[in-house]
Amino acid sequence: MNPGEHVTEIVIFTVLFLVVSGMGFVAARWRRPQDLASLNEWGLGGRNFGSWITWFLVGGDLYTAYTFVAVPALLFGAGAMGFFAVPYTVIVYPLVFLVLIRLWSVSHVHSLVTPADFVRVRFGSPTLALLVAITGIVATMPYIALQLIGIEAVLKTMGIGGSGLLSDLPLIIAFVILAAYTYQSGLRAPALIAFVKDILIYLVILVAVIYIPARLGGWEVIFGRAQEKFAATPAQGDGILLNANNQLQYFTLALGSALALFLYPHSITGVLASKNRNVIKRNMSALPAYSLLLGLIALLGYMAIAAGVKPIGTDNNTVVPVLFDQMFPDWFAGIAFAAVGIGALVPAAIMSIAAANLFTRNIYREYINPQATDAQEAGVSKLTSLVVKVGAVLFILLIDPQFSIDLQLIGGVIILQTLPSVAIGLFTRWFHKVGLIAGWVAGMGGGLVLLYNISNPAIKHAHFGGSAFPLEKLGFDTKMTIYAGFLALLLNLIVAVAATLIARAAKVPDGPDGTSPDHFTADEGDPRVKDLELESST
Amino acid sequence: MPGNDRDRSPWYWLLLVPIAVPLMTFLFNAAEPTLLGFPLFYWLQLAFIILGVATTTLVYRMTR
């Protein structure tokens, strides 16, 4: 594509992008903290966000640019399977409701910032906390990288970017700006930008789902053309309905992704920044409004089929931007592209903050400088957030974007292995720390072996070709597939139970539990929450 | 503060409904009946969002 045809789009995209970046820098003064030099302020925005800010922040956090680009791309390529994103985002809220309010309480009583902090207090094991922290950082990196893919897809459609080092320059500039204002303002930046992002996204999607079907001849035509396309392809797994072999995958992928989502450090950051338990509960009933949006966004993939969209090169991620480019007048396409681009900035900022907090609290303070002051912690986190972003940019420059959704699925398999320590640990202290460490090792090892053995003929990869593991490789006589993360988690749990029983029988000393049952239900205004704030972060 | 059993309200069990129902593929893996041109697979799963909102709202009101 030629950038000359896209001048209007490029101008509108650039202007909106710069306005939002300006907001990111100003955000440091928003809700005026006395001092940004502590993790509570820089990394959690003062832990004082009410219902509205939390709604925008968590929504901006969970529904990312990748969602807008990769989920429709999945429907475009494979059909019904891609719709797993809808049940996944329906079941995640009741799960968060049940689990993360307990994490909120215990974190406020003990001034915890990260999930690994919790594991440290609960199981008295720095080793287990380190494993949880490393898992979080490793799983978050490709997720940040995915956000860049959203921006990249838009840039490609406008005829800038593509291949070669110089053409990556716009992407690098966008990320340098993002890195600079995250460094300056911390969590306040994405919280403020999330307002603009959401207004733009809602506007674009509402227009898209009314205007595009009307131009294409209605929903019946859209679904009909999608069905014709899948019927004509030689592949067995696609279609606008599930088949006998991928229903188990659909079920386990939706459940596994939901369990993984709230274990990601960035979702926990958003939840911990809220003011009290009721803010979280109210949000869990209001956040599904985004899921409706997501369902409609997913169907953009079928609209692209019906409109005869051809992806740029082999990059299916470009189908939505190309659809917008074909369907909308230039000025509105520019707004739509800006929505996707800005949609990438919010989660990328929160994710890099969360990963940086993990490094600071669970590696720097635990192993390098145990006497770190609040200001030192904030300083280290700010620097780490820059390093994490550089890592994410390298991911994009060095790895084929075709992998975007698979990368995220692999991250999901990895982060799921912290479920026994973090999520189950919120309810019971039954597991022995040795059991949890053994389970983590087994789940992680098993998960990577499973992923290694998944091939994807469509993109000519013999290994790491996705997350759908064929059960016949385990000796079952079937063509069914299952989500690899689900199997790995089962293995993790079985090993954790067995190793716990063995460790108890062998009288291996367990770590001390720093919590008591009432810490898991404490709320704002509770004397315990106040008292422990005075003790600061010890 | 009202004791340790704040998280023991029976209302919380209701949250298992919007977790379990959207995962039952046999409920919605069909094209008919269609609604406004949407096959059952798509409109029913979107309708589960309403089920999720209703349940979480109810449990929030009963446990706050």
UniProtKB/TrEMBL annotation, chain A:
It comes from the Bacteria. Gene3D superfamilies: Sodium/glucose cotransporter (1.20.1730.10). GO terms for cellular component: plasma membrane. It holds the Pfam family SSF. Residues 510-538 are annotated as: Disordered. It is found in: Membrane. GO terms for molecular function: transmembrane transporter activity. The keyword Transport applies. The keyword RNA-binding does not apply. Keywords: Membrane, Transmembrane, Transmembrane helix, Transport. InterPro entries: Na/Glc_symporter_sf (IPR038377), Na/solute_symporter (IPR001734), Sodium:Solute_Symporter (IPR050277). Residues 520-538 have a biased composition (Basic and acidic residues). It is a multi-pass membrane protein. PANTHER family: MONOCARBOXYLIC ACID PERMEASE (PTHR48086:SF8), SODIUM/PROLINE SYMPORTER-RELATED (PTHR48086). Belongs to the sodium:solute symporter (SSF) (TC 2.A.21) family. This is SSS family solute:Na+ symporter.
UniProtKB/TrEMBL annotation, chain B:
This is DUF3311 domain-containing protein. The keyword Transmembrane applies. It comes from the Bacteria. Keywords: Membrane, Transmembrane, Transmembrane helix. It holds the Pfam family DUF3311. InterPro entries: DUF3311. It comes from Nonomuraea dietziae. The chain crosses the membrane at residues 12-28, 40-60.
